[in-house]
Design brief:
Cytochrome C Oxidase, Chain A; transmembrane; mainly alpha; about 400 residues
């Protein structure tokens, strides 16, 4: 790894020293604030205030691109340093990128003119992809090029949403958001497929890691990307037995991967079992979507929320809890309260997906409470960590 000038590194405020710091902090704070704001909007407590496109359009877009986009950026801008052995984005450049993300969030929720909102929103993901791609290109690290490709497709999905917003077409906005959600699934399968078996090996003290089956990994990735394409183009919004077959690729494929990684010892390690549960939701979501395409499930929203709450938010919380410790020079031992946070988030997913058809509003409120409590616990124990230097004095 390239060496950093120690005096220059110490001159940078800790929060701007590596990508995970601002984006994990801002992203989780946004997740905590966005849900009560959505609840107040649903119950008419915000009066005439309307974000760009209305509250439903805001909620749809921001949970994927606002919350999810921040965490994806923070993780990738941190991981690329390990992948390439070169320093990651830091200092003023990192601060500028984080402030761009924040400006886009404020512009959307405050209903800024589209002439301001659209350029702010369109700039963020391409900037992240450019930084990531440039770092990988310099060392010719081709095995991580698919990450840049999926990130670029995610930016294209965001552009589709903004096009729909500009022309007042709600269908285009839905297509873009749902395409993005399945691209996030592709990214989770790609990254999770690498790190979960590795973290499991390290966490359980195994001598060998479960070897990947490249054909299985590529099948899951292709299935998720093709599902995203079906939503972007429109057919994914309509029931089709052919799309049910496509849903089985990532659904059954991720189940098989999860079974290969499983060890009963994970339930003893706080930082492991949430990763496996999140990946289980990542398998359940496309299987639920397949059931809808076959007419066995009445509402496709349940499958989408299995992906958004159980898989995306679940994997995010589990990953950032571990990554934040590792990259701040701390032992890989989560605070005891994080076990409760992980359990609450999964309970919230169960309430939103499985209990909602039975309990209605009660399940909805339970899901919202669990979500807020989980991210509040993360911020309670990690906010200071993200804003202070590494314990070992190293850069980052």
């Amino acid at each position: 790894m390239q060496l950093l000038d120690a005096s220059r590194e110490l001159a940078i405020r800790p929060i701007w020293r590596l990508g995970f710091r601002p984006f994990f902090l801002f992203g989780t704070a946004f997740a905590l604030l966005a849900v009560p704001l959505w609840l107040m909007a649903l119950h008419g407590r915000l009066g005439p205030w309307q974000p760009a496109g209305g509250w439903l359009a805001w909620h749809r877009h921001e949970m994927v691109f606002g919350f999810g986009g921040a965490i994806i950026a923070g993780f990738l801008l941190t991981a690329v340093q390990n992948w390439t052995g070169t320093p990651g984005l830091r200092g003023r450049a990192l601060a500028s990128l984080a402030l761009l993300w924040l400006a886009a969030r404020l512009a959307w929720v405050l209903g800024a003119p589209l002439a301001l909102l659209i350029p702010l929103e369109l700039a963020f993901l391409p900037w992240v992809a450019l930084v990531l791609g440039r770092s990988l290109w310099r060392v010719r690290q081709r095995n991580n090029y698919p990450v840049v490709l999926v990130l670029s497709l995610l930016a294209a999905a965001d552009a589709l949403v903004l096009w729909g917003l500009a022309v007042g077409n709600d269908a285009l906005q839905r297509q873009g958001v749902l395409a993005a959600l399945w691209l996030v699934a592709a990214l989770m399968g790609l990254i999770g497929g690498r790190v979960i078996p590795f973290f499991t090996q390290r966490g359980l003290g195994r001598t060998q890691q479960i070897k990947a089956w490249p054909w299985l990994d590529w099948t899951c990735l292709a299935g998720s990307v093709l599902l995203a394409a079906s939503f972007a183009a429109g057919p994914g919004l309509q029931q089709s037995p052919w799309l049910a077959i496509l849903c089985l690729l990532p659904g059954l494929g991720n189940l098989l991967r999860l079974a290969r990684w499983y060890d009963a010892g994970i339930w003893r390690v706080t930082l492991l079992w949430p990763l496996h549960l999140a990946f289980a939701w990542l398998a359940l979501a496309p299987l639920g979507l397949a059931a809808w395409h076959l007419g066995w499930l009445a509402n496709p929203s349940l499958a989408q929320h299995a992906l958004g709450v159980g898989a995306m938010a679940g994997l995010i919380l589990a990953m950032i809890a571990r990554v934040s410790l590792g990259h701040s020079g701390r032992p890989l031992e989560a605070p005891r309260a994080m076990g409760l946070a992980f359990a609450l988030l999964n309970l919230g997913a169960v309430a939103r997906v499985l209990l909602m058809p039975l309990l209605g509003t009660l399940a909805f409120w339970l899901a919202a409470f669990c979500w807020m409590a989980a991210f509040a616990l993360f911020l309670r124990y990690y906010a200071v960590l993200l804003c202070t230097p590494r314990l070992d004095g190293r850069p980052g």
